[in-house]
Design goal:
By secondary structure, the protein is of the alpha+beta class. It folds into two domains: 123 residues, 2-Layer Sandwich (Alpha-Beta Plaits); 31 residues. Helix content is 34%, strand content 14%. It has a four-stranded antiparallel sheet. Helix 3 crosses helix 4. The protein is globular, with a radius of gyration of 20 Å.
């Protein structure tokens, strides 16, 4: 199952795990890490866009795809036992190129810092950026004071840790038979929950649910 997930995309295997994890290889070798405390985030989408292909072409980092460059991830390949989340360690090599191509994205990133984020970073290759806040209160205050330009959208959210069940699931992922059997049980359970959520008794808490499913 993990091999199939890896063939769909380098980041897909991570979603069989959830929580905090360390990925190596092409991203398909995923090992669970201890989850840090909940992190409160604001995702800010400016009124700008940049195609992924353009971002990659502008990235001046040829060693990132070099088979000979064995130390390119050495600074993030620490001991799992000693792992500790520190927002100051966040880094995205796309930032210089993307900020130069679309200055509005850089302005959005600065706006998060000025609103009180202890760290802010480009999300993937853009165009969204996100800020990390010390608490839910700090997150709420930032929403009130952040200076939004026309067309900007802001989304409050927080990190989601892996549950013990998800961790056990990930550790058994190398055994495809066990994973498939366990996955079938979870699929069956989710179908029951989804069916019950549409029962008339739950209509009050789920008013947008369709009458027929």
């Amino acid at each position: 199952m993990i091999e199939i997930a890896g063939s769909l995309g380098a980041d897909v295997p991570f979603f069989f795990l959830g929580g905090t994890a360390q990925a190596s290889g092409t991203g398909s070798d995923v090992e669970p890490l201890i989850d840090p405390h909940d992190q409160f985030l604001l995702v800010l989408k400016p009124n700008a866009s940049i195609p992924t292909s353009v971002a990659y072409k502008s990235l001046q980092a040829g060693s990132l795809t070099s088979a000979e460059a064995k130390t390119i991830l050495s600074n993030s390949d620490g001991s799992k036992a000693a792992y500790r989340f520190d927002s100051k360690d966040l880094k995205n090599d796309f930032e210089p190129a993307v900020f130069q191509l679309e200055p509005e994205i850089n302005r959005a990133n600065i706006a998060l810092t000025e609103a009180g984020a202890k760290a802010s970073l480009l999300a993937g290759s853009g165009a969204a950026v996100f800020g990390i806040f010390d608490s839910g209160d700090a997150q709420e205050r930032a929403i009130q004071v952040i200076e939004l330009e026309a067309g900007w959208r802001v989304f409050p959210c927080k990190t989601v840790g892996a549950t013990p069940i998800e961790v056990r699931w990930a550790r058994r992922a190398k055994s495809s038979q066990m994973l498939l059997a366990d996955g079938a049980k979870h699929v069956g359970a989710s179908q029951v929950v989804r069916h019950r959520s549409l029962d008339p008794a739950f209509v009050g808490s789920n008013p947008s649910a369709p009458a027929n499913f």
